[in-house]
Amino acid sequence: MNYCYLNGELILASQATLKLNDLGLLRGFSLFDYMRTYNGKPFMPQYYMERLFNSAALMGLEVPINETEILYYIEELIGLSNLPDCAFRFLLTGGYSLDSMSVTEPNFVIITENLPLEVPERFEKGVKVISSEHLRELPEVKSTNYMKPILLAKEMKSKNAYDVLYHKYNEISELSRSNFFIFKGDTLITPSTNILRGITRRVVLELANQHFKVEERIISLDELREADEAFTTGTTKKVMPIVQIDELQIGKGEVGSRTRLLQQLFDQFIENY
Amino acid sequence: MNYCYLNGELILASQATLKLNDLGLLRGFSLFDYMRTYNGKPFMPQYYMERLFNSAALMGLEVPINETEILYYIEELIGLSNLPDCAFRFLLTGGYSLDSMSVTEPNFVIITENLPLEVPERFEKGVKVISSEHLRELPEVKSTNYMKPILLAKEMKSKNAYDVLYHKYNEISELSRSNFFIFKGDTLITPSTNILRGITRRVVLELANQHFKVEERIISLDELREADEAFTTGTTKKVMPIVQIDELQIGKGEVGSRTRLLQQLFDQFIENY
Predict the structure, then answer these.
(1) Cα gap B20→B190, rounded to integer Å
(2) Chains A, B: CB contacts under 8 A, how many?
(3) Does any CB of chain A come closer than 8 Å to the CB of residue B94?
(4) Cα separation, B59 vs A166, whole angstroms
(5) In chain B, whose CA is at the least distance from the CA of A111?
(6) What pLDDT, on the 0 to 100 scale, is given for residue A6?
């Protein structure tokens, strides 16, 4: 029984509702974020808060409570959760609209969720992804528009693909819900524009800087052929190796040694967090 | 006090809610439609039903009740409304998702709404619009993603603009919530691709066919300079003249005689409906 914060109250998530004239529901005008705990502690909360408030500013929405208040409610929700670790889904919508188009006082929700279980084999053997031409509307905003990957769900399932890698104008940006990296030799490269700035991406870059040359720059679609290794980073995916993109095998088609090192460094980081 | 249909029940719209794990709310995976009455009768219901079911099919969602059942509930809602005329907002979402990404049994809602009041002067003097580079993700689907016009709301207000005209790759498509037409001499031209096929557009084309040469084809951004008249059509906008696009005055900057004829023909059509 998970609880949630909804506009000032802590209630059972299963009993929480929004009215039909919420602008997130009527017009998709809504943003979210997704933070998790490690060892029962919120992971890098200041990074997540920074991103949440940045998304809100870019959409012209005001988060109704401040960072300190949010982190207070997070601690309350952890206490209520009875879980060793959990995730928090923040949702900030355009509010209850009187004319179904005008933004009003935002609705703000923090939902406690069970962490999804990741298949351990994937971290060992890597995953396959498909590519698709797409660019999110406001890439730096974690908006709720996920029409693209939901429409691709059947194709991904039939191709046994883990996720979809977006590209547009021959430039790679990100996966549907995580960031993208390649290794060319000892150089780690990750797109720097048209992406959501992932928190795991940020931590991995900090860890990688001590071991590899790091380049944040455009990766062209063609450059994938030159990649020795590839992986994606995300809050629940951590460092997830990618060994195939469409029909292209990356490197030897198995998890490379550099990706393994980053997995180990990240696992150590969260173990000691 | 307007009523709504929500998953099989008729209840007060102000008391209707959806749970937080609705996929329309969490992931913007949702479509809608908007039908109105004239003289207390649903306007062209078969056209609206066709479009609603087409949107649903393109998004892989099944409308839980059939057309006959929908029209039965519409009559019930009209009876409960106590309004001479009203509008119905249909909303079909990806349902309550267990993992916040997978589509389940759709939630289906029909909300009775008061018709927005249109300023009569606009029909007489025409409106100004701004243009913006944009292409909706699935143009033939009336999806709920309206991030673009909501983000532009401040700019539109400051420029006294009525709406925004979308173009991409130098091709004009539509306004944020209505279709676009120009007259060049006695030829009526309207975009045929990358648009939502409006019901008022369809009726106006049927009426115009008897008086003008009609071309459904691409209109380039540059071609606007050659337009003698312009207007937009929509369920609540009917035939709304456009006399200025950004800094460009259309024709003489006043409502042209051909647009006036179409306004009269449409007004006659709805008067006798």
Answers:
(1) 40
(2) 129
(3) yes
(4) 20
(5) B20
(6) 98
C-alpha span between A44 and A255 (Å, rounded):
27
- The predicted model scores a pTM of 0.97
| A66 CB burial (10 A radius; 0-12, 13-18, 19+) | exposed
| B-interface mutation test, from A55, A145, A168, most B Cβ less than 10 A away | A145
- pLDDT (tens digit per residue) in A32-53: 999 999 999 999 999 999 999 9
Cβ–Cβ gap B147/A149 under 8 Å: no
Question: Chain B interface, mutation test: which of A19, A147, A148, most B Cβ atoms within 10 Å?
Answer: A147
ipTM for the assembly: 0.96
User: Collapsing DSSP states into helix, strand and coil, what is residue B31?
Assistant: strand
Rounded-to-integer distance, Cα B204 and Cα B43, Å: 14
Distance CA B55, CA B191 (A): 19
Cβ of A103 and B153 within 8 Å?
A: yes
Residues 46-75 of chain A with CB under 8 A from chain B are 59-60
User: Mean pLDDT over residues B83-111, rounded?
Assistant: 97
In chain A, which residues have pLDDT < 70?
none
CA of B148 to nearest chain A CA: how many angstroms apart? 8
C-beta atoms of B28 and A28 within 8 A: yes
- CA-based nearest residue in chain B for residue A110: B20
Domain(s) labelled CATH 3.20.10.10 in chain B stretch across 120-271
A166: amino acid identity, one letter = Y
**B150/A103 CB distance under 8 A:** yes
Q: Where in chain A is the domain with CATH 3.30.470.10?
A: 3-113
- The amino acid occupying position A208 is A
Q: Does A117 touch chain B (CB under 8 A)?
A: no
Which numeric CATH code is attached to A120-271? 3.20.10.10
Which pLDDT score, from 0 to 100, does residue A1 have? 77
In whole angstroms, what separates CA B83 from the centre of its chain?
A: 21
**Tokens 């990957």 sit at which residue?**
A149
Backbone angles phi, psi at B176, to 5 degrees: -60, -30
Per-residue pLDDT at B1: 78
Which of the following CATH numbers is that of domain A3-113: 3.30.360.10, 3.20.20.70, 3.40.50.2000, 3.30.470.10?
Answer: 3.30.470.10
Using a CB-CB distance cutoff of 8 angstroms, which residues of chain A are in contact with residue B144? 25-28
Residue B95's closest CA among B4, B31, B140, B11? Answer: B31
B153/A109 Cβ within 8 A = no
